[in-house]
Amino acid sequence: MRVLLDNFSKSFGTTKVIENMTLEVGHGEMLALLGPSGCGKSTTLFAICGIHRPTGGRILFGDRDVTDLPSQARNIGVVFQSYALYPHMTVAENIGFPLKVKGMPGEDIRKEVDRISGLVHIGNLLGRRPAELSGGQQQRVALARALVRKPDVLLLDEPLANLDAKLRLEMRSEIRRIQRETGITAILVTHDQVEAMSMCDRIAIMKEGEIVQIATPAEMYNDPRTAFVAGFLGNPP
Ligand code: ADP
Ligand code: MG
């Protein structure tokens, strides 16, 4: 589903974090919001989630104006840096929980949990509890739980930040594979330019609440519009 931020603004009290941002993410596209810490990436993503209400502008999913809708009514899947799995539940119960809340019958939940855990490659972990999983496995469970309701949009905020270097590399390609296989529209927030370049169709580089350039990874690399963009892409953190 297409996502459109139309003249989106967000302030906290008198602090203006985002002013008049317009951004379109195409159906089936994976877009990175890339920029240094504090530039407003999470604020933007939280507004798309429905956690923050915009102080100006509109947010559209397809033709539907979701600006005033709560998170639950937006049909989104979210994965944040901390996995926030329910520790007392098994993997299967964690993944099935969003369906249980919706009132789906147990037999149907089992089918959907099987389907999504096959896609995310955790079919062998369904009986375990989160404490018995590695960081990468926990993150796969969080992804499965985010995707089980077949959301229109997948929102990822620094999803790899808690993983060690090897797992981060593995999960980069895994998240991209899953995004491609499901064809879901996805927005990835990251401060890591290599992550953005290797995972996304397009990158929106942000600085102090503004998008300074939006382009494919190749275009961005070959033709950075400003010294800030060139510097940011050239200097790994
Ligand atoms: P990023 O995700 O790019 O690191 P954030 O979107 O979290 O940046 O934050 C952008 C700016 O907005 C920061 O200056 C931050 O202090 C401010 N900010 C974020 N959330 C709040 C809030 N709830 N109240 C006040 N200021 C906030
Ligand atoms: Mg952030």
TrEMBL record:
Lineage: superkingdom: Bacteria
Domain ABC transporter: 3-233
An example molecular function term from Gene Ontology annotations: ATP binding
Transmembrane segments: none
Membrane association type: Peripheral membrane protein
Keyword set, alphabetical order: ATP-binding, Cell inner membrane, Cell membrane, Membrane, Nucleotide-binding, Transport
Subcellular location: Cell inner membrane
Family indicated by similarity: Belongs to the ABC transporter superfamily.
Name of this protein: Inositol-phosphate transport system ATP-binding protein
Organism for this UniProt entry: Rhizobium herbae
Lineage, top ranks: Bacteria, Pseudomonadati, Pseudomonadota, Alphaproteobacteria, Hyphomicrobiales
Parent-protein residues present: 1 to 237 of 351
